[in-house]
Design goal:
By secondary structure, the chain is an alpha+beta fold. The protein has helices at 45-57, 111-116, 125-134, and strands at 6-15, 18-26, 29-33, 36-38, 59-73, 80-93, 103-109. The protein has a single domain, classed as Nucleoside Triphosphate Pyrophosphohydrolase. The two termini are 25 Å apart. Pfam families: NUDIX.
Length: 148
């Protein structure tokens, strides 16, 4: 069997100095994460990021930049995640939409509030992506090509 990393997307959405995070149920209890999830077969990275953000938060977003690509190995496992983190602008909220299974709620948190709950993050990459965003790391979306 050939090894392949799990491709995931995450979206950093900032509005009025606050960042959109989800609180989700995991095997380790409640954790905080950017809106994020797995790339589905036949889907572009862009479509996956927009879809996951809406499914997990009820927010429609417009992608603006790629913040970074992160490779994360799960300890004591052969599982590796390849995360594409995007910066996005909030467009419209759909509060009546049911959130994905496992998502408890969506929160708009300040950087300090996010840093204060670092032990409850889904992964250390949550803070790494946010710090890269705050450092101004931005790459044009045309860096990524999708051949359907």
């Amino acid at each position: 069997m050939q090894w392949k990393p799990n491709t995931t997307v995450a979206t950093i959405v900032e509005q009025d100095g606050r960042y959109l995070l989800v609180e989700e149920e995991t095997e380790y209890g409640l954790r905080f994460n950017q809106p994020a999830g797995h790339l589905e077969h036949g889907e572009s990275l862009f479509a996956a990021a927009i879809r996951e953000t809406r499914e997990e938060t009820g927010w429609e977003v417009e992608l603006q930049h790629l913040v970074g690509i992160y490779m994360v190995d799960k300890p004591d496992s052969d599982i590796t995640w390849l995360r594409f983190a995007f910066a996005a602008r909030a467009i419209r909220h759909h509060p009546a939409e049911k959130l994905d299974t496992g998502i408890v709620s969506a929160h708009w948190l300040t950087y300090d509030e996010i840093a204060a709950c670092a032990l409850q993050h889904r992964s250390p990459v949550v803070m790494h992506c946010l710090d890269d965003y705050r450092l101004g790391k931005r790459f044009d979306l045309d860096l990524i090509h999708h051949q359907p």
